[in-house]
Design goal:
Blueprint: E1 2-8, E2 13-19, E3 22-29, H1 34-44, E4 48-53, H2 59-68, E5 70-71, E6 83-84, H3 94-106, E7 112-117, E8 120-126, E9 131-139, H4 141-150, H5 173-199, E10 204-208, H6 212-219, E11 228-230, H7 234-250
Parallel strand pairs: 1-4, 4-5, 6-9, 7-10, 10-11
Antiparallel strand pairs: 1-2, 2-3, 7-8, 8-9
């Protein structure tokens, strides 16, 4: 049974095809089109599909999925066995919830601290008792560079490429901005991990998202390195678990 899952983010969209729980196709696109979806659906004879989106203007895409597959509408009301204590389910990001669902299945009975370094940086904890109380949302790396430029009169907009893994010393204004933003993010991430370590025994740190490679490079020699797992497909895995859960419920 092949499943098509789609994660539409602020910057890029990710598509994956799973054969049951085996990832057989992965794509990153700037824009999801009906033609691309129909091609994948025909190629893999897709049975089921679901979508996570930070926006709501995708009725045409959903229409294609409904017409050609068994479409499962994903929402935060779908629960695979997690004690969800989040107070405003209607405002809980679908991508955040998908990651919690993935951690629940793939890292069972572990204290999982999920760090997603994307447009925003999100921090979420699923404890070993399968309880989720929420987390934190912070500015992503590119957003920090843009904010420094936008909210000041003289600071330039500094471009940073994800391939740049070294933090400069800050010997002029552009490198000072890079140093402040990049080192600031690392200090923030390490502070969050340290704090969660004090509250949770045997913490597993799952890092995902577009800027994960930068975090991993900086943390590889830290005291937290043995705790860290890079799981780039966490959201997509969670969406696939939603399909598996709903299929079991209906059959």
């Amino acid at each position: 049974m092949h499943n098509l899952v789609i994660d539409i983010g602020n910057t890029n969209s990710k598509l994956a095809v799973f054969n049951n729980r085996k990832l057989v196709e992965y794509q990153t696109l700037k824009q999801v089109t009906a033609e691309a979806l129909i091609s994948l659906i025909k190629q893999y004879k897709i049975s089921n599909s679901t979508i996570s989106s930070v926006a709501i203007e995708f009725e045409d895409i959903i229409g294609v999925l409904k017409e050609n597959t068994n479409y499962i509408e994903f929402s935060t009301t779908i629960n695979t066995g997690i004690k969800n204590h989040y107070k405003t389910l209607s405002t809980l990001g679908l991508d955040r919830w998908a990651k919690i669902i993935a951690a629940h299945y793939y890292y069972p009975k572990r204290n999982c601290f999920i760090i997603d370094a994307g447009t925003c940086i999100t921090y979420d904890l699923l404890d070993s008792d399968d309880a989720y109380f929420g987390g934190s949302i912070s500015l992503g790396l590119h957003m920090r560079f843009e904010a420094l430029h936008h909210f000041t009169r003289r600071l330039p907009l500094v471009k940073w490429d994800r391939g740049e893994t070294e933090i400069p010393a800050g010997e002029d204004t552009p490198t000072a901005i890079k140093s402040g933003v990049l080192q600031g993010v690392i200090n923030e991430v390490e502070g969050f991990i340290s704090h969660k370590n004090k509250e949770n025994k045997d913490l597993t740190v799952l890092i995902t998202g577009g800027d994960a490679a930068f975090l991993l490079k900086q943390l590889k020699n830290s005291i937290f390195a043995p705790q860290i797992i890079h799981d780039p497909y966490l959201v997509l895995k969670g969406l696939n678990e939603v399909i598996a859960f709903e299929y079991v419920q209906k059959n």
